[in-house]
Design a protein that fits this description.
The structure holds two protein chains of two kinds. By secondary structure, chain A is an all-beta fold. Chain A has strands spanning about 5, 10-15, 20-25, 30-40, 40-50, 55, 65-70, 75-80, 85-95, 105, 110-115. Chain B is globular, with a radius of gyration of 14 Å. The chains are: A mainly beta, B mainly beta.
Amino acid sequence: DVKVTQSSRYLVKRTGEKVFLECVQDMDHENMFWYRQDPGLGLRLIYFSYDVKMKEKGDIPEGYSVSREKKERFSLILESASTNQTSMYLCASSDLGRNSNQPQHFGDGTRLSIL
Amino acid sequence: GQQLNQSPQSMFIQEGEDVSMNCTSSSIFNTWLWYKQDPGEGPVLLIALYKAGELTSNGRLTAQFGTTRKDSFLNISASIPSDVGIYFCAGQLRNFGAGKSTFGDGTTLTVKP
């Protein structure tokens, strides 16, 4: 089974802090994704990566950056945390399908509170 | 970007009832996916559909890829309390955006014993 592990289930940080959310997958997947989930807004894509050191902006990249130095690890960085970044953050990974799209597999999420 | 309309937004049903939910899009997809998210957990893949008209079952769950490729349906038969959660649909285009998915806003299901 695919295992996507997010380093923290719950995190509390202060406004202005630099925050790192870590995600590791064990299936050698090429693609990795970061989403935030807020009530009534579904899943919104922040950034994704299709290879080591490659990254693409999603729908809501402002206030975030990412790092992918190794294939199995994808980090989300809040450069200067603000209260409106309080949310549930979900990491996902997927294989590079040769003939068809491959579904994303999700971690259990990090519930981040910015005070 | 592409938008998915998922309905209903929420459902309150009695244990044993059947459930239907659907997703529609203004543009076509090559793949439709259905996920379930339990409270406090990440979404888990339930069913993947790769072909227009395809009908696939997973236990009490049945999903269909609409023939127009712009919609998909999920049915749950004889619901039980552990069916509670948020159900998401997602669409994918082949060879586009590194396997990006467009997600619906979710259907929150509550099952009363």
